[in-house]
């Protein structure tokens, strides 16, 4: 289940950090809060224009860490809220998860579909 506060953050300007681990070690890539979508099945969908190293890492090890936040959303101790998402990812280039994002982002080549295992509010 996706927390309402996380959905609120996804509507704000802000940066998402996506960490993966591959054969060559850890890798970090960024995208925007407002680019994220939630599938009907509760997966977090992220448009991938490039992200080739991220995709290679996910093929090697599907576990990902994602952080995002916004100073405009009330957090645990005042202004500013953030989340840490742990989950498993897959890159898809067809099907409903791909189609949902392709309709919004004509430039994407694939969708990174993340199945959350834990979603923790960190601040």
Question: What are the key terms here?
Answer:
123 residues; single chain; globular; seven-stranded antiparallel β-sheet; Pnp Oxidase, Chain A; alpha+beta; 19% helix
Report a brief summary of the structure.
This protein is of the alpha+beta class and 123 residues long.
What does the model show?
With 123 residues, the protein is α+β, with helices and mostly antiparallel strands. The chain has one domain (4-121): Electron Transport, Fmn-binding Protein, Chain A (Pnp Oxidase, Chain A), CATH 2.30.110. The protein has 3 helices and 7 strands; from the N terminus they run αββββαββαβ. It has a 7-stranded antiparallel sheet. The chain is globular. 29% of the residues are buried.
Task: Please tell me the CATH architecture by its name.
Answer: Roll
Evaluate the radius of gyration: 14 Å
The spatial strand order of the largest sheet comes to 2-1-5-6-7-4-3
**Helix content estimate:** 10-25%
Q: What is the CATH homology-level superfamily?
A: Electron Transport, Fmn-binding Protein, Chain A
Q: Percent of residues in beta strands?
A: over 45%
Task: Please outline the major beta sheet.
Answer: 7 strands, antiparallel
- List the total number of helices: 3
The average pLDDT is 96
Oligomer state of the chains in this structure: single chain
End-to-end separation: 19 Å
Q: Low-confidence segments, ≥5 residues, pLDDT <50?
A: none
The CATH class name reads Mainly Beta
């Amino acid at each position: 289940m996706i927390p309402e506060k996380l959905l609120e953050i996804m509507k704000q300007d802000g940066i998402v950090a996506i960490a993966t681990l591959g054969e060559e070690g850890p890798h970090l890539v960024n995208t925007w809060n407002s680019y994220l979508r939630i599938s009907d099945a509760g997966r977090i969908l992220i448009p991938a224009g490039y992200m080739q190293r991220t995709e290679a890492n996910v093929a090697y090890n599907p576990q990902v860490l994602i952080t995002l936040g916004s100073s405009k959303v009330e957090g645990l101790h005042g202004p500013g809220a953030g989340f840490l998402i742990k989950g498993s990812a897959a890159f898809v280039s067809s099907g409903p998860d791909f189609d949902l994002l392709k309709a919004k982002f004509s430039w994407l080549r694939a969708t990174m579909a993340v199945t959350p295992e834990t979603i923790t509010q960190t601040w």
